[in-house]
Amino acid sequence: MSQTQQIAATESTSTPGWDAIADHPPSAKLVAKVLEYNDALTQSQIAEHSKLPGRTVRYALGRLEEVDVVESRPSFRDARKRVYSLAIEDDPGPV
Protein backbone atom coordinates (compact mmCIF):
# COMPACT_ATOMS: atom_id res chain seq x y z
CA MET A 1 0.00 0.00 0.00
CA SER A 2 1.40 3.37 -0.99
CA GLN A 3 1.70 6.27 1.41
CA THR A 4 -1.15 8.11 -0.36
CA GLN A 5 -3.45 5.11 0.06
CA GLN A 6 -2.52 4.82 3.74
CA ILE A 7 -3.31 8.50 4.34
CA ALA A 8 -6.63 8.20 2.51
CA ALA A 9 -7.54 5.08 4.50
CA THR A 10 -6.64 6.79 7.77
CA GLU A 11 -8.66 9.90 6.92
CA SER A 12 -11.71 7.91 5.87
CA THR A 13 -11.82 5.93 9.10
CA SER A 14 -10.83 8.67 11.54
CA THR A 15 -13.92 10.88 11.36
CA PRO A 16 -17.33 9.68 10.23
CA GLY A 17 -19.14 11.80 7.67
CA TRP A 18 -22.76 12.48 6.85
CA ASP A 19 -22.84 9.21 4.91
CA ALA A 20 -22.71 7.39 8.25
CA ILE A 21 -26.27 8.52 9.02
CA ALA A 22 -27.78 8.13 5.55
CA ASP A 23 -29.76 5.04 6.59
CA HIS A 24 -30.79 6.39 10.00
CA PRO A 25 -34.33 7.55 10.78
CA PRO A 26 -35.32 11.18 10.11
CA SER A 27 -35.28 11.94 13.84
CA ALA A 28 -31.58 11.01 14.07
CA LYS A 29 -30.81 13.22 11.07
CA LEU A 30 -32.71 16.10 12.67
CA VAL A 31 -30.79 15.67 15.93
CA ALA A 32 -27.52 15.73 13.97
CA LYS A 33 -28.59 18.93 12.19
CA VAL A 34 -29.56 20.57 15.49
CA LEU A 35 -26.12 19.72 16.86
CA GLU A 36 -24.52 21.06 13.69
CA TYR A 37 -26.07 24.50 14.26
CA ASN A 38 -25.54 24.49 18.03
CA ASP A 39 -22.13 23.61 19.44
CA ALA A 40 -23.00 21.40 22.40
CA LEU A 41 -26.40 20.70 23.94
CA THR A 42 -27.97 18.52 26.61
CA GLN A 43 -30.68 16.04 25.71
CA SER A 44 -33.42 18.36 26.94
CA GLN A 45 -31.99 21.28 24.95
CA ILE A 46 -31.92 19.13 21.81
CA ALA A 47 -35.56 18.18 22.42
CA GLU A 48 -36.46 21.85 22.84
CA HIS A 49 -34.66 22.94 19.64
CA SER A 50 -35.91 20.04 17.53
CA LYS A 51 -39.45 19.90 18.94
CA LEU A 52 -39.02 16.11 19.27
CA PRO A 53 -40.11 14.15 22.36
CA GLY A 54 -37.35 13.41 24.86
CA ARG A 55 -37.63 9.68 24.29
CA THR A 56 -37.14 10.12 20.54
CA VAL A 57 -34.10 12.32 21.13
CA ARG A 58 -32.64 9.74 23.51
CA TYR A 59 -33.12 6.99 20.91
CA ALA A 60 -31.62 9.13 18.13
CA LEU A 61 -28.59 10.05 20.26
CA GLY A 62 -28.00 6.39 21.02
CA ARG A 63 -28.08 5.51 17.32
CA LEU A 64 -25.74 8.40 16.47
CA GLU A 65 -23.29 7.45 19.21
CA GLU A 66 -23.16 3.87 17.88
CA VAL A 67 -21.73 5.14 14.57
CA ASP A 68 -19.47 7.73 16.27
CA VAL A 69 -21.29 10.72 14.77
CA VAL A 70 -22.05 12.22 18.19
CA GLU A 71 -19.73 12.58 21.17
CA SER A 72 -20.89 13.03 24.74
CA ARG A 73 -19.29 14.24 27.94
CA PRO A 74 -20.56 14.98 31.44
CA SER A 75 -21.96 18.46 31.97
CA PHE A 76 -19.83 20.71 34.17
CA ARG A 77 -22.93 22.57 35.40
CA ASP A 78 -24.90 19.46 36.34
CA ALA A 79 -23.07 16.14 36.61
CA ARG A 80 -26.36 14.25 36.19
CA LYS A 81 -26.61 15.45 32.59
CA ARG A 82 -24.51 14.79 29.51
CA VAL A 83 -23.57 17.31 26.84
CA TYR A 84 -23.67 16.13 23.22
CA SER A 85 -21.72 17.50 20.26
CA LEU A 86 -21.37 16.55 16.63
CA ALA A 87 -18.25 14.64 15.62
CA ILE A 88 -18.67 15.24 11.86
CA GLU A 89 -16.22 17.77 10.50
CA ASP A 90 -16.80 17.71 6.75
CA ASP A 91 -19.44 19.58 4.77
CA PRO A 92 -22.90 18.03 4.91
CA GLY A 93 -23.95 16.14 1.86
CA PRO A 94 -27.46 15.08 0.98
CA VAL A 95 -29.05 13.95 4.21
TrEMBL record:
Residue ranges with Polar residues bias: 1-16
Region (Disordered): 1-24
Top-level taxon of the source organism: Archaea
InterPro entries: ArsR-like_HTH, WH-like_DNA-bd_sf, WH_DNA-bd_sf
Protein name: ArsR family transcriptional regulator
